[in-house]
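REQUEST
  id: r-88c1
  op: predict_structure
  target: Sugar ABC transporter substrate-binding protein
  payload:
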Amino acid sequence: MKKAVRRTLSATVAAAMAIGLMTGCSSGKEGQKPAGEASGTEAQAAGSGQQAGTGGEQTTIKFWDGNWQEAVWPEVEAIWNKEHPDIKVEAEFQADLANDKYMLALTNGTAPDVMACALDWVTTFGSANLLEPLDEYVARDSFDVDQFVQGANDASTVGGKLYGLPFRSETYVMYYNKDILSAAGYDAPPATWEEVKEVAAACTNGDVYGYGLCGTNYSNFSFQYITMLRSSGSDILNADNTASELGNSVAVETAQLYKDLAAYAPASLLENDNIANRTLFASGKIAMYLSGIYDLEEIVKTNPDLNFACAMVPTAGGAERNTILGGWSVAVAGCSKEKEAAWEFVKFLTRPDIAAIYTNTFTGTAEVAARYADYPEDIIKPNADALQYASALPAVKNIVGIRQAIMDNLQLMLSEDMSAEEACSLLDQAVNGLLE
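RESPONSE
  id: r-88c1
  status: 200
  body:
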């Protein structure tokens, strides 16, 4: 009998987390003066947006983000340095930015002052009390958090406390190759998942495949499956986030859809992540795939002549549109010794004009990145419209583990002789175990 695949934190990370809650970056330590009680010139400087440094001395803070942001950092850094000469930001752009890497740094006290975190990471770290709550800073500075996409605020709030502010928001759309669809007799993209299967079958011919699926990378895989699931009328957890819904009939039908579409995907499916699918799409080898606005620049750079557009995610069974809100927030480490300076940088990076330069998607306020001003409407508009139907993943402590379990168990369906029903039964068990 197959056993459910349920991964938890590695032993190293789990041990570090246990130690870290006592000695690392845990926030809200007893006896600490809350940020809202800053006094004298310190409070005045913070409230007016002046530098957190005192006496003309320069304060240094560290900032981590992924290396995909490195190219635009100099422009953002120049603006920051002009506005905040007393606060130096040492930015490190990680090639291997991952949840576990952040967790280790937070729990052993070596985390940077400010971190760019995927929305579900904020949930994990906030649940572990490893981030600085921002509520008192927000209240003290009368900072308008309502300007941000509500789902992003929801995802950054754990136990009623706000642990991050969004600078980047995105969701999935369907990319499609107009020429491949036209050659197969279709003048418009499919609107339902049944139509997707029909069009994918018609477009599969020789070394051209009808659909691109992710078979690896837990983040990419789970986003694709959950997007299909939500657009079919269900979700991964029940309404109060206490039990899995991944064994219900819609979840099984969605898993079967994933398996059916694999017949029209490249043979390398189990090795393909989103980057592989983007490369195949840009080279004209797949007709359709799900992804976010962040793929646009690379597609156009790879193949400027590609005739493509974007469409809203298809639906099934008459379900209302419902997709995942993805994106990134900036958070302050609970162990930071420069929280005031860190807060100033958080406010700066989430400012709409700065975020529009820094991000390659939409800002935390849902404004399109400045670099897309000249892109065609049939590419940009569906991405913008899709945001209104996007909501955050459930704010539960083990959301990263749940997403890993989705890939681990549904991979068995793709790589072994396993039915969708059996795979979902195993997945359901795994997720309920992670909720305990």
